[in-house]
Specification:
Blueprint (H helix, E strand, L loop, with lengths): L1 H33 L7 H27 L6 H17 L29 H4 L1 H19 L3 H22 L4
Length: 173
């Protein structure tokens, strides 16, 4: 009897989960249908670039952690990480359409996931922003092909490039 009840409960929970998934898909489809073809809502673009930047940051942290540990590093794996960073950075500036220039100071209701922390200077100096990201992507690519003796120096330069870009174009409050 107990097994039967458990199977039934799992079945009900499974149906409920499926219904929730369908409801979410229908809600998303309604939103998508209301949009102009080819346009993405600004909040979705902001969320996408935050996810991309978080992934770049975590990948960079993995490289730096491995380099800081004593012992032999797996240069092949670290090169793969650097290559991924290079590719992600090539994509990154394309996630800054003008519609996402939505920074407002002193916003007490700022949603950390959907509201931007990108400074308006990104759009005011977009060519410079683009060049900085492209240069960082190139450093990451060079690291992905570097010999052991050159890898660490390129990663240090890449971190400096990231820090400089964040200082110029990222709001912190």
């Amino acid at each position: 009897m107990r097994r039967k009840l458990e199977r039934r409960r799992r079945g009900v929970l499974g149906v409920a989960r499926d219904l929730i998934a369908v409801a979410c898909l229908l809600a998303a489809a309604g939103t998508a249908l209301a949009q102009e073809p080819g346009s993405t809502p600004p909040k979705d673009t902001i969320f996408a670039r935050k996810i991309l930047m978080d992934t770049i940051g975590r990948t960079m942290d993995e490289i730096e952690t491995a380099m800081a540990e004593s012992g032999k590093i797996d240069l092949g794996e670290l090169r793969e990480h650097a290559d991924l960073i290079s590719v992600m950075l090539m994509t990154f500036p394309h996630l800054f359409p003008g519609s996402t220039n939505q920074w407002t100071p002193d916003n007490p209701d700022r949603d950390a996931a959907l509201d931007t922390y990108a400074a308006p200077e990104v759009w005011a100096n977009f060519a410079e922003f683009y060049q900085r990201v492209a240069a960082a992507s190139k450093l990451a690519f060079e690291a992905s092909r570097a010999k052991r003796a050159d890898f660490r120096g390129l990663i240090i330069q890449l971190r400096d490039a990231c820090t400089g870009c964040h200082a110029a174009y990222l709001k912190t409050d």
